[in-house]
Design brief:
Blueprint (H helix, E strand, L loop, with lengths): L5 H12 L3 H21 L3 E3 L3 E8 L2 E4 L6 E4 L2 E8 L1 H7 L12
Length: about 100
């Protein structure tokens, strides 16, 4: 398995959409900013069948330092939560064919 860099991802999106890398980069940047702002407000984004972005919340509690055994209080926190949708899960598990990608 190879890691896809952001630059590689932008190039693939540009090829797939039939546009230039600058436009693809702007769209991806706008997507990132929209997801961040929406999830920060506490709203969720559901891309049906693909992904769900939402805000999770951890309660305050206690944890233990594994080196010293000392009990440590933890603060309540919010965190980003991403869940895979049904169609993405089916593609990953070879239950559905993956979309054909354009040549980069």
């Amino acid at each position: 398995m190879a890691n896809v860099t952001k630059a590689d991802f932008i190039a693939q999106v540009a090829a797939q959409a039939g546009t230039d890398k600058t436009t693809a980069a702007a769209v991806i940047k706008a997507f990132e900013e929209t997801v961040q702002a929406t999830v920060k407000k506490g709203d969720s984004i559901v891309l049906t069948g693909f992904l769900k972005f939402e805000q999770g919340q951890r309660k305050a509690g206690t944890a233990r330092n594994p080196q010293t055994g000392e009990q440590v209080k933890t603060k309540a926190k919010k965190y980003p939560k991403v869940s895979a949708g049904t169609s993405l899960k089916k593609v990953v598990n070879n239950e559905s064919p993956a979309p054909k990608l354009a040549k980069v």
